[in-house]
Amino acid sequence: MNKIKPNILLIYTGGTIGMIKDFESGALKAFDFKNLLDKIPELQLLDCNIDTISFESPIDSSDMNPEYWVQIANIIEENYNSFDGFVVLHGSDTMSYSASALSFMLENLVKPVVFTGSQLPIGDLRTDAKENLITSIQVASLLDRGKPVVQEVCLYFEYKLYRANRTSKINAEHFEAFASPNYHDLAVSGVHLKVNTDYLLKPNSRKPFKVHKNLDNNIALIKLFPGLSEQVLQNILNTPNLKAVILETYGSGNCTTQPWFTKLLETAINEGIHIVNVTQCAGGSVMMGHYEASNHLKDIGVISGKDITTEAAVCKLMYMLGQNISKKVFKTIYETPLRGEIS
Ligand code: ASP
Predict the structure, then answer these.
(1) Are 142 and 153 in contact (CB under 8 A)?
(2) Is 86 helix (H, G, I), strand (E, B) or coil?
(3) How many structural domains are present in the chain?
């Protein structure tokens, strides 16, 4: 392998970027990786060595699950020392979840892991795939005095590089499909590729790289709405083996003050179930106690998700539950930024 040019590993998991139309149904389905590379001869012009690895059966990212996250983590772990950077091609539908999950699973990461995909297949005349892929590879190749410039898990889409665990998919139609409402863009691609170095994570490179593969999905996500019934909430909280619940609340972390609601949550917390408060708003933060309509949550020991995205909140929970963290410190650790996911 050429030592001077950066070595990049392209990991193909599926998604629209490599899809083709099914002849019979006309629906888009995942195709094999070779098809993808044939469509982009430009990759050979990039100033890096590219190796590729693909899921045996690429998937639509709607089928993504924690086992696939472990598969991606394994590929990165096995190739960590041989490559300078990693680009993960992934469907956009659940990309923010996967990229957030990987950000927690890869501890003390000092190399770039860039998730990208596209809204149109790479073979489409108007595709956004080429720019997304080519710039992602360039981002993953950036070196400063032999060291990777980006040392975290990020997501590149439509001219912007974001911290992965700050993103959400916000549009099913526009090429600008992602947003990071609570954190700055890490880089913007225009005439020049402008990296906002001040906003990048600066990990301690002396700490050993560790991959965490134990994820616990005994969790539930409840989006509050006016009219949520006691019965529905009770049924969810009675789920066998349930260990944690994310409540998507209103505004800055507010919810109904009806006694049955508070009582159900309090009982669950006393039984050892962690309750995390995350806002339904795209931007801004939970501030329990700011309104009377959130004081009761604070009083019973609900965890504040602060300005975390729902996607990152889900992944952080699965990761932390997989670490067997004691009940005593769980709240404090959850409320602390582990990978730059909260402010
Ligand atoms: N359904 C596709 C997927 O998430 C959409 C995309 O790739 O943009 O795999």
Answers:
(1) no
(2) strand
(3) 2
- Site to probe by mutation for ligand 1, drawn from 93, 97, 168 as the one with most ligand atoms within 8 Å of Cβ, is 93
**Same domain (yes/no): 168, 34:** yes
Helix (H, G, I), strand (E, B) or coil at 160: strand
- Rounded to 5, what percent of the chain is helix, strand, coil? 30, 25, 45
Q: What is the pLDDT of residues 221-252, one digit of tens each?
A: 999 999 999 999 999 999 999 999 999 999 99
| Pocket lining: 91 vs ligand 1, CB cutoff 6 Å | yes
Residue 97 alpha carbon to ligand 1 centre in Å:
13
Ligand 1 binding pocket mutation candidate from 88, 92, 132 (most atoms within 8 A of CB):
92
Mean pLDDT of 113-120: 96
% of the chain with per-residue pLDDT over 90: 81
Whether residue 218 is predicted with pLDDT greater than 60 in this model: the reply is yes
Q: Do residues 288 and 314 share a domain?
A: yes
94 is catalytic: no
117 lines ligand 1 (CB under 6 A): yes
Q: Give the range of the structural domain holding residue 323, as residue numbers without chain letter.
A: 219-334
Give residues with Cβ within 8 angstroms of 25, minimum separation 6: none
The number of the ligand 1 atom at minimal distance from the alpha carbon of 95 is 4
Pair (260, 134) in one structural domain: no
